[in-house]
Amino acid sequence: MFDHTASYEKPRLLNLGDSAWTIEFGLVANAQNHQRVLAFRDALKAANLIRFGAILDTVPSLRSLSVHYDPLQTDAMALGQFLLELSNGHTASCSNGVDWYLPICFESEYAPDLASISKSCGLSTQQIIELITGISFQVYMLGFLPGFAFLGDLPEVLHLPRLAQPRTKVPAGSVGIAGKMCAAYPWESPGGWNLLGRTPVQFFSSHAPNQPALLNAGDHVHWQAIGADQYIALKSTMQAPNHDHQQWRTQLQNPRAWL
Predict the structure, then answer these.
(1) pLDDT in tens, 3-20
(2) What's this model's pTM, rounded to 2 decimal places?
């Protein structure tokens, strides 16, 4: 999915219906263009947008950023021209994102494809676990489901296609790999990624209305291995109706949380 070859193109302004503009930074999904997306997002946060009325949301992707606005309160053409002008020249992101240290259980009950991944890649399951827990994954974008984060990049030895026959039900918290990406399913859903573990972490919660998705583009995820007993205990605690979401978000930013 992610191409690291250099590709610098002028930003393009694309009309996304009557209530959104998209700034596209290139046709290739590479690290350079994604860095430009994050830099543009940071520039927007710092810009004075009051004169354009209601800006409802910004949505970064691998190589573009969309700005949603209220067409009844915004001069659409003026906003589009402003976005295009602002997008030129920003190549470095101001923010480094949040580092998250997330528990993951690799035991067979929670990792139905780990053995087949091992066979396909010619690595032992322990070597795969060491690779996954040794990577600082960058959050490139959210998509597919609310809170579903695309994390890159996997080492080439773990590049695998999606399953030929997708599952009709993937349990919430399942961690999978496909192509150059890793991701965790925030909800039970259909899916075709190769599942190598499961996490008790909730990636989307209505109890945190100001930031319902745990991860954001530009954050980094560090997976830390836990056993089945710890997984069961953490899942019970994290999904309890009265559990303190802010406390757990703080805990998940502790580098030694699950070591």
Answers:
(1) 544 457 899 999 999 999
(2) 0.87
